[in-house]
């Protein structure tokens, strides 16, 4: 089935409840090929032109779920939402970026999904289409944390992202050179109007983590009106604060005794997060 509109796609899913929507197929076909999924039918979303672009709406960008990573990586999109463009450019090799979509990245909700920490830091929301023209809006974080799920027959139509007109960064570390899944990733978003810093860490937990105390601490130290730069020690302390919040030390044993230490692999990831957060904030403020 190849519907041409969002409502046709929802209707196709209502007609064939066992059908599964497919956008770029980069995640779905991996599951099919490995025998984990045997969909009775597919509803292709690739011909729905209304969800392949974006539009402006009340200080927000309404991004179609069918936007590919390749499209989001282009300069005009990067001027709009720089961190999401950087995440899109980091998402896999070119073949994957040409086919893989924003909506697929969100619905798969892999811990290593590159767009997810950016959307969490931006506090983006999802516009979901359901049967009979029903629409509902939920924070992306609700879907990623399992607080709310997609109901049967629903399709993610759009992602609403606030346009902050301020620097933002996305940095990703992989375990190897060249394209690869994130070992850790960090998105940093400045919100000068609210004098806020928002940060989200990806790949270290099942969903992106927000180190809220570290965000508030560093936002209180930024000279929002002037040009005084943050001292390198403050940037380093922010990195450590973020990393410790996301990958804390194991709790001390109840009856006393030596506290257990983090295994070396976890320590490595924690140091990586600290470095990414320090650099990400430093670049955003530069
Ligand atoms: C070799 C390889 C490398 C990769 N590297 C990366 C990487 O570095 N970073 C990264 O983030 N990802 C990576 N990925 C994962 C993948 O490319 C992305 O998650 C991509 O964004 C998925 O989008 P898609 O359109 O292909 O989704 P699909 O495969 O089409 O769909 C994925 C899931 O989402 C559902 N779905 C899709 N769109 C919608 C919608 N609008 N509404 C409701 N449900 C929907 C489908 O039913 C399916 O369950 C990689 C994948 C491969 C195969």
From TrEMBL:
Residues 1-166 form the FAD-binding PCMH-type domain. GO terms for molecular function: FAD binding; oxidoreductase activity. Coiled coil: none annotated. Gene3D superfamilies: 3.30.465.10, CO dehydrogenase flavoprotein, C-terminal domain, Uridine Diphospho-n-acetylenolpyruvylglucosamine Reductase, domain 2. It holds the Pfam family FAD_binding_5. Keywords: FAD, Flavoprotein, Oxidoreductase. It comes from the Bacteria. This is Dehydrogenase. It comes from Streptomyces taklimakanensis. The lineage of its organism: Bacteria, Bacillati, Actinomycetota, Actinomycetes, Kitasatosporales.
């Amino acid at each position: 089935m190849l519907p041409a509109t969002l409502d046709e796609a929802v209707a196709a899913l209502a007609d064939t409840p066992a059908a599964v929507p497919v956008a770029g197929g980069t995640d779905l076909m991996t599951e099919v090929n490995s025998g984990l999924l045997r969909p009775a039918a597919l509803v292709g979303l690739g011909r729905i032109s209304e969800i392949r672009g974006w539009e402006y709406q009340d200080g927000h960008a309404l991004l179609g779920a069918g936007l590919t990573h390749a499209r989001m990586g282009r300069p005009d999109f990067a001027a709009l939402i720089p961190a999401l463009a950087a995440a899109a450019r980091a998402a896999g090799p070119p073949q994957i970026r040409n086919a893989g979509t924003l909506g697929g990245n969100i619905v798969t909700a892999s811990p290593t999904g590159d767009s997810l920490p950016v959307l969490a830091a931006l506090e983006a929301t999802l516009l979901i289409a359901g049967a009979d023209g029903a629409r509902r809006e939920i924070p992306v974080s609700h879907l990623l944390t399992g607080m709310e799920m997609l109901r049967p027959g629903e399709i993610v139509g759009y992602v609403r992202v606030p346009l902050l007109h301020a620097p933002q960064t996305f940095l990703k570390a992989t375990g190897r050179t060249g394209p690869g899944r994130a070992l850790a990733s960090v998105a940093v978003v400045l919100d000068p109007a609210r004098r806020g810093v928002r940060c989200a860490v990806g790949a270290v937990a099942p969903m992106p983590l927000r180190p809220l105390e570290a965000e508030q601490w560093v936002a209180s130290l930024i000279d929002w009106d002037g040009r005084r730069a943050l001292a390198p020690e403050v940037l380093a302390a922010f990195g450590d604060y973020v990393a410790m919040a996301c990958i804390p030390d194991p709790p001390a044993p109840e009856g006393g005794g030596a506290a257990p230490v983090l295994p070396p692999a976890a320590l490595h990831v924690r140091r990586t997060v600290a470095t990414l957060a320090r650099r990400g904030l430093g670049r955003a403020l530069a």
